């Protein structure tokens, strides 16, 4: 068993780390305060090819593996979870189109989102359902060669950026969940005000409204009634990005706590030297980081080496639940070391706490994912 | 005309651990030094402006065949190298001889770039030795290089002034760290680096006998203990900070 990263994986991680530390980190507080990622950050990410690391070369991607993508999003998220979230959603959308789109859909949509010229979204959740396709109310009605969409979608990341959206709606004649690739901002598309999240700022979250929104029938992805397949595939591809974000935020919190413990003194001696419980807490954090890291590395490896969608979905669910919950534990422990300084917004740890607490709740809550993984256990 | 960049793999100093005042080099990843990257960036910029090829010439341990991908990702077109674990015991004089052997095999060499020193032992000898062995002119402390016809114009950063010199080709240029800011390689450049041409040989094939001109007696890390000074107030703090060069004098 070889735990070493390849030279290419190490180099991609190194470049992402340098970009994160030199370009994103100085803007991180601004991104957090304004809930907006400056264009210069996107421009650099486009130039370096971060949007298409694991995308097919024939559409302009790097042709790299999921682990390379994971390493990059981890490094970027150490500085800004919001930047990571934008990249994560765009990434799993191009993975979905590359895996399940037809040739025309691939040629139409992949080059721009792989290049980062457009940013993709995924829309399943509605006010009344987060993961259950039978409760969808957004309706797609056939009218000539088009479908007409009416309804709304909730908590949609990247909805304010131009580009495609993979949307799952109820097809009226069959009543079955069906996925469409739509162009955001076409006539009949409108947005709510952005939701005010407690963390992951910069990754904008909106409700999206569709009123007599027309989409060609040829834009159905995965076939009529194939929405469940798309949802399952999204489940498989999407979690690696969220895991990378949580791992990045948790690592940043660990580094903050370690630096604080070395710097903060008690009667002239750094608290990391003076108090055993501080060292004990730091090691516990590192143990959890180590376990989370290998869980998500293996999940990323599986995406490149295994093909059973059910087993991949199970591993994705387990990894996402494990890593995001471990992330919350780690940041809470960092808070316990930093103490009262952690609850004032002058200190970075407060931002990291807001970022990490979101992890277990989004893209399938931890309890939903455990239920999904458990259902596959008996298959 | 082609540009050669001599690059040396060194331990990643950010991951270096100090134990008993000595650097622990075990399991530390290798990389190219920062000033080597400046030299490479300079050559790549000249190639983009004037054409030609950028070729990395390197002598290092067996891991060089992997480390070289970093240089190839950063814009070099190909590489020629001696990759052999026996290289770690060699001295600057030996490395210069080996680099000359590699460079002599290359066609149409115009400029040969070196960093002013390597990130590990910083002897700063190899560039000058290569120039001497090849009989080429050398220009040091280069902070800007441009081509004018069949000559290179090099700006040298001296203490408190700059000097501009013209040099006939082929020539050796030894660059300073403030020459440029190397671009980060793109993901696609990284993933395609391993597919670029590489000529690899080893010490047995070149039949080199090591010299023993100098002996490294000890390699110690500087002490970095806290000063633990007690200060009476902000005025004294400012004075101490100025005295230690931490804020402007």
Q: Please, could you describe this protein's structure?
A:
- The complex is a heterodimer of chains A (379) and B (249).
- Chain A is 54% helix and 15% strand.
- Chain A is of the alpha+beta class.
- In chain A, strands 1, 2, 3, 4, 5, 6, 7 and 8 form an eight-stranded mixed β-sheet that branches.
- In chain A, a hairpin with a 5-residue loop joins strand 4 (164-171) and strand 5 (177-183).
- In chain A, helix 4 (66-79) packs across helix 7, helix 5 packs antiparallel against helix 6 and helix 5 (81-100) runs antiparallel to helix 7.
- The model of chain A has no long low-confidence stretch (mean pLDDT 95).
- Chain B is of the alpha/beta class.
- Chain B has seven helices and 13 strands.
- Chains A and B meet through helix 1 of A and helix 2 and helix 5 of B.
Write the layout of secondary structure elements.
The complex is a heterodimer of chains A (379) and B (249).
Chain A: H1 7-24, H2 28-34, H3 39-48, H4 66-79, H5 81-100, H6 103-115, E1 121-123, E2 139-143, E3 146-157, E4 164-171, E5 177-183, E6 189-191, E7 205-216, E8 220-221, H7 227-263, E9 265-266, E10 269-270, H8 271-274, H9 276-305, H10 309-338, H11 348-358, H12 366-377
Parallel strand pairs in A: 1-4, 2-4
Antiparallel strand pairs in A: 2-3, 3-7, 4-5, 5-8, 6-7, 9-10
Chain B: E1 2-7, E2 9-11, E3 17-19, E4 22-24, E5 30-32, H1 34-50, E6 54-60, H2 64-73, E7 78-83, H3 92-104, E8 109-115, H4 126-134, E9 138-148, E10 151-158, E11 161-168, E12 171-175, H5 187-193, E13 198-201, H6 203-206, H7 234-243
Parallel strand pairs in B: 1-6, 1-8, 6-7, 7-13, 8-12, 9-12
Antiparallel strand pairs in B: 2-5, 3-4, 9-10, 10-11
Helix pairs in contact in B: 2-5, 3-4
Global geometry of chain A: globular
Shape of chain B: globular
Helix % of chain A is: 40-55%
**What's the number of extended β-strand segments of chain A?**
10
What's the tally of helices of chain B? 7
Mean pLDDT of chain B: 91
Strand content of chain B: 25-35%
**Secondary-structure element order of chain B, as H and E?**
EEEEEHEHEHEHEEEEHEHH
Largest interface by residue count?
A: A-B, 20 and 16 residues
Low-confidence stretches of chain B: none
Give the CA-CA distance, first to last residue of chain B: 48 Å
Helix percent band of chain B: 25-40%
